[in-house]
């Protein structure tokens, strides 16, 4: 089995496990994430943090993003521009949300596009080393690569439930590893900058 095939298998298995979490349980797990990371992630006021609005069975990051905003973070969320590209549009109370594809919503084109300094990254599976499997479309990998081409190095916090952990993610040279992972059990660090 190739690395790509193994990733696809792990993705399907872990997303099925996530889908099996009851909606009420997902809410309590999402609130636990906000409690674990709301104050523990270090950043200065004005720091640009990208989150995401939940689709399918993802964790609901709105409570965590509200806590970050209360600490002075500027929030943004991904908007799908085309089959290759996402941009991070500023999330403010006065800008309405529109459908942007893949089941996502985001602010419209009137919102500012920001370069995140901290990114909350959705994923399908992760391992103890900080390697992740995304959803397979590569949006985040390309977005992070574009930021790095601009000499920006956003800190990456994976967002998942405990049931999405696997023993080993087959990593390839183009893969980008996480600085931390946030689940309902806590915030685990792979890099020292966060705490």
Automatic annotation (TrEMBL):
Its cofactor is Mg(2+). Its EC number is 6.3.3.2. SUPFAM superfamilies: NagB/RpiA/CoA transferase-like. It comes from the Bacteria. GO terms for molecular function: 5-formyltetrahydrofolate cyclo-ligase activity. It is an enzyme of class 6 (ligase). It catalyses: (6S)-5-formyl-5,6,7,8-tetrahydrofolate + ATP = (6R)-5,10-methenyltetrahydrofolate + ADP + phosphate. Keywords: ATP-binding, Ligase, Magnesium, Metal-binding, Nucleotide-binding. Pfam families: 5-FTHF_cyc-lig (PF01812). The keyword Membrane does not apply. Belongs to the 5-formyltetrahydrofolate cyclo-ligase family. PANTHER family: 5-FORMYLTETRAHYDROFOLATE CYCLO-LIGASE, ATPASE INHIBITOR/5-FORMYLTETRAHYDROFOLATE CYCLO-LIGASE. This is 5-formyltetrahydrofolate cyclo-ligase. It comes from Rhizobium croatiense. The lineage of its organism: Bacteria, Pseudomonadati, Pseudomonadota, Alphaproteobacteria, Hyphomicrobiales.
């Amino acid at each position: 089995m190739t690395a790509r095939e193994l990733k696809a298998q792990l993705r399907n298995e872990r997303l099925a496990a996530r889908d099996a979490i009851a909606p009420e349980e997902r809410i309590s797990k999402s609130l636990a994430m906000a409690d674990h990371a709301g104050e523990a992630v270090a950043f200065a006021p004005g720091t640009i943090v990208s989150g995401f609005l939940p689709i399918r069975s993802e964790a609901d990051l709105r409570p965590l993003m509200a806590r970050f905003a209360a600490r002075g973070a500027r929030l943004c969320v991904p908007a799908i521009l085309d089959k290759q590209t996402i941009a991070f549009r500023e999330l403010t109370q006065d800008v309405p949300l529109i459908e942007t594809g893949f089941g996502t919503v985001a602010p419209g084109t009137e919102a500012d596009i920001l370069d995140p300094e901290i990114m909350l990254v959705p994923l399908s599976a992760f391992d103890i080393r900080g390697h992740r499997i995304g959803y397979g479309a590569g949006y985040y990998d390309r977005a992070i690569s574009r930021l790095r081409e601009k000499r920006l190095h956003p800190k990456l916090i994976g967002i998942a439930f405990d049931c999405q952990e696997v023993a080993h993610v087959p990593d390839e040279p183009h893969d980008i590893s996480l600085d931390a992972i946030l689940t309902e059990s806590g915030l685990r660090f792979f890099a020292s900058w966060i705490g």
